[in-house]
Sequence to fold (185 residues):
Amino acid sequence: MKTYNELVDLFEQANDALLMVDYGLLADQVSERTLCGALMLHIYDLIRQDPSYKGYYADVEYNRNKGTIKTIRKTIRGPDEKIISINCDLILHSRGTHIEQDNLLAVEMKKSTRCTTEKNKDRERLIALTKDSFDDVWAWDGKNLPEHVCRYVLGVYYEINYRRRKILVEYYRQGQKIHSYTMPF
Fold:
């Protein structure tokens, strides 16, 4: 089983590689999707070197959960409950084959110029994705995936400020923001 600290280390190594190898993408102020693709390649390179990640994949804009569309609950219960389909900018997961630990890393990336509402929706998504369950009832039985996507070990909010040449990184775990920092590029 992969731990939160192992996934933070993996993400930081991939981010370091992104900033070193693909600095030109940041200098050119490319789109979030392009940066996610570059980051995905660095994650892929790292997991291919480590046999403990066998059967895991880094995917951009992935929206499936064992063949159906990935969903999360907007609220816990009641008349205002909404089931919404989701896709993260970048995830590391087993595509449903490792039931005991399918979801490892979810990354949401935004430019700092995007509206606050969009940024907060990404943060809310990371909170939901890193919770152990949505209804506080589902218990992992080791055999079945939950109806709604959850149990990501690490969620990362990644905000690029091209004007100030800084990146804000926030780490989420079990439905909570755990740590945040800014770094220059």
